[in-house]
Amino acid sequence: MYILMISVLFTLVVSMLVMMVASLLSKKVVVDREKSSPFECGFDPKGSARLPFSLRFFLVAVIFLIFDVEITLLMPLAYIISLTNIFTWLFAGLMFLLILLVGLYYEWLKGALEWNE
């Protein structure tokens, strides 16, 4: 029992020492003004933080999220194929895809997918 406690204690001490040495050796000495600024994505750090974004960006982001959630909702269809008959499974999957395709066609007609305007 004591040997187990001593080996666990030794392992913890050695791992802590290795982590502390690695932390000390990995510190960068050179401080870059651009890297330490709060904005690293092309914004001027001295300018206003409330720059207006295009509404089209947010619309495309919402469309992406909708179709991303659509993929996660289609995943259970592959699981339940063995639990239900093929006609019900096919009908449910096709209706779900049809509703999403109609939504995509509506967005296309409204011009939400056009970037050159």
Shape verdict = flat
Q: Which spans of ≥5 residues are poorly predicted at pLDDT below 50?
A: none
Q: Helical amount among residues, as a percent range?
A: 55-70%
Strand residue content: under 5%
Backbone CA Rg: 28 Å
Q: What would the average pLDDT be, to the nearest integer?
A: 80
Instruction: Report the count of strand segments.
Output: 0
Membrane topology: Multi-pass membrane protein
Transmembrane segments: 6-25, 57-80, 86-106
Function: Core subunit of the mitochondrial membrane respiratory chain NADH dehydrogenase (Complex I) which catalyzes electron transfer from NADH through the respiratory chain, using ubiquinone as an electron acceptor. Essential for the catalytic activity of complex I.
Subcellular location: Membrane; Mitochondrion membrane
Characteristic key phrases:
about 120 residues; mainly alpha; about 65% helix; NDAH_ubi_oxred_su3_sf; EC 7.1.1.2; NAD; respiratory chain; transmembrane
Describe the structure.
With 117 residues, this protein is mainly α. The protein is 67% helix and 0% strand. It has a domain at 53-116. It is built from four helices and no strands. The longest helix is centred in the middle third of the chain and has 25 residues, at 55-79. The model has no long low-confidence stretch (mean pLDDT 80).
Helix and strand layout, with pairings?
Elements: H1 2-25, H2 33-36, H3 55-79, H4 86-110
Helix pairs in contact: 3-4
